[in-house]
Amino acid sequence: MMKIYKVVTLLLSFGLSVMGFAEVAKTPVAYLNAMTIAHKMLNYELFYFVQQGEQVDSLRYRHANYLGKEYAQLLQLDKAREEIILRDDRVSYFGEFQPFSLASDHILDNLPVLLYTDFDQLDGYNFIDVGRERIANRLARVIRIVPKDDFRYQHEVWIDEENYLLLRADLLDRDGNILEQFKVLKPTVDDQFIYIVEPISSLILPSVIVDEQKNSPLLSWDPKWIPRGFKKIKSGTQNLSGVLMENEQIESQLYSDGLASFTIYLVQNKGVIFNEQFWRQGKLSIYSQTFGDKDVVIVGEIPLVSARHIVQDIQQNQLIGEPK
User: Fold this and answer.
1) pLDDT digit string, tens, across residues 10-22
2) What is the CATH number of the domain that holds 124?
3) What is the pLDDT of residues 199-213, one digit of tens each?
4) Does the structure show a pLDDT above 90 at 38?
5) Same structural domain for residues 44 and 193?
6) Pair 76, 172 in one domain
7) Which domain holds residue 190?
8) The Cα angle at residue 88 between residues 116 and 30, in degrees rounded to 5
9) Same domain, 194 and 235
10) In this structure, is residue 4 part of a structural domain?
11) What's the burial of 233, exposed, middle or buried (CB within 10 Å: 0-12/13-18/19+)?
12) Rounded CA gap, 320 and 292, in Å?
């Protein structure tokens, strides 16, 4: 009886904390912060799709918060069954492959990074309240996140005005074209979804894959220029021996501004000269340039103009030679 009382009390406190925060959600940033809190604290189910180009994925996401811990299941609804489980700061993947786990406190696959963003710390964007709009049979507040420069993408989000769950998120380029869309078809907020805690808790999860990259904060090179608001998150080297080629090392640096991210790779050139090679699929840009005997490659969720600027302004240091 005492255990049930504690659970009910906790659920009520979670609901009050979200709704209490929502009472002051009168600015765009306040709405966005209420959205991130609701996503972590409420018990709910979402049926939604993610579209990038011609590819459309239909998914179901169930989430519960029990005694301050998050439990979630993300299920692919079409084609081969693929399932992602969140438990104990571990994200586990199951499907037609060897199951594996990653150390993480949230599921990012097929969910917008907006759900895990600290909007109070976000730099380089303006936040605009566009008004109300009906979506998924719910009344939503529409917020536009517009970059202050041309070196990142813009976002438009629809937030449920009652429970503050994200109902839709569009990622748009500078011309307003949709690069990726997250859209909820049926949202359900109900404490009944606490039932997922028991079966998830009883699962035997696969082992966590250890990141073999060696942290090397002081590499022999650095980008001379990066867009405003981006910060280096991680840098290091990784040995690809036995994977792609013998005794090959790759150096990398990961940058993020809280919404967008990109990684710069430095590898030994193998005789193929990359003279401003570029490619974009949806939100992902790939840009490469050969400097002497090195290839610099950038991969990230940024416009090609940003990738080109970053690569061409790499501080040479130990990179010998001019671009080929």
Assistant:
1) 444 444 445 554 4
2) 2.50.20.10
3) 999 999 999 987 665
4) yes
5) yes
6) yes
7) 28-202
8) 25
9) no
10) no
11) exposed
12) 5
Q: Which residue has the tokens 């990141």?
A: 211
What single DSSP character describes residue 192? G
Both 87 and 149 in a single domain? Answer: yes
Does the residue 48 lie in any domain? yes
Write down the pLDDT at residue 7: 39
Do residues 76 and 57 lie in contact, with contact meaning Cβ atoms separated by under 8 Å? yes
Residue 319 CA neighbour count, 13 Å, CB half: 26
Copy the structure tokens of residue 162. Answer: 């009652």
pLDDT of residue 125: 95
Count, residues in the chain? 324
Q: What is the pTM of this model?
A: 0.85
On whether both 167 and 69 belong to a single domain, the answer is: yes
Q: Is there a single domain that holds both residue 60 and residue 162?
A: yes
Dihedral sign (CA 298, 304, 306, 310): positive
Residue 324 lies in a domain: no
**What is the rounded distance in angstroms from the CA atom of residue 97 to the CA atom of residue 79?**
14
Q: Residue 232 belongs to what H/E stretch?
A: strand 231-239
| Separation between Cα atoms, residue 127 and residue 145, nearest integer Å | 5
Distance CA 166, CA 110 (A): 13
For residue 251, what is the domain's CATH number? Answer: 3.30.200.100
What total of structural domains would you count in the chain?
2
Residue 106: Cβ-neighbour burial (10 angstroms; 0-12, 13-18, 19+): middle
Regarding whether 161 and 278 lie in a shared domain, the answer is no
